Amino acid sequence: MAGTRPGFLGEGDVPKELDSLFPASSASQRTETIKPKPGICVKTRNEDKKKVFINVCTSEAIPAPEDITDQELIAILESDKPSDFRVPMSIGQLHEEKDKSGEVCLAYDVVISPAFFTKMTDNPLFHNFFMIATMEGIEEKYTMTLDKNGGLLMMFLFI
């Protein structure tokens, strides 16, 4: 193409270049449909004081995090250095639900490994860590603010 600097694409080449960077098969290779098992539901509120439910479910398709002790988690939390400890989870899309009084509220489904779910529900330290990390993940993904104090107290099992 005359007048185009070397290394730049002409207008007609853009779709071809995008297809080479993002092939159609790559999306299907990165996604998997799973049917999670029910776990717990945590009720909190967003910055508009609207009810938000976080449904924590489990699936064997989600890997368990490294198995660490209470002392190791405390050391991570007290450290100023970044940690490589991560809890693999899938945070689903926002959807609306109705609460027991029929009021429309917001809901997010979060899927974790069954092994970590058991550890989290049996251990208050890991439960609080997980719920704060989950709420921060939702806040970051959806650019919102959640009440991290009330939500930790209002937990119930669902089936």
UniProtKB/TrEMBL annotation:
Residues 1-33 are annotated as: Disordered. It comes from Penaeus vannamei. Involved in the assembly of C/D box small nucleolar ribonucleoprotein (snoRNP) particles. Recruits the SWI/SNF complex to the core promoter of rRNA genes and enhances pre-rRNA transcription. Mediates interaction of TELO2 with the R2TP complex which is necessary for the stability of MTOR and SMG1. Positively regulates the assembly and activity of the mTORC1 complex. GO terms for cellular component: cytoplasm; R2TP complex; ribonucleoprotein complex. GO terms for biological process: box C/D snoRNP assembly; rRNA processing. InterPro entries: PIH1/Kintoun_subfamily, PIH1_N. It comes from the Eukaryota. This is PIH1 domain-containing protein 1. Belongs to the PIH1 family. Residues 28-149 form the PIH1 N-terminal domain.
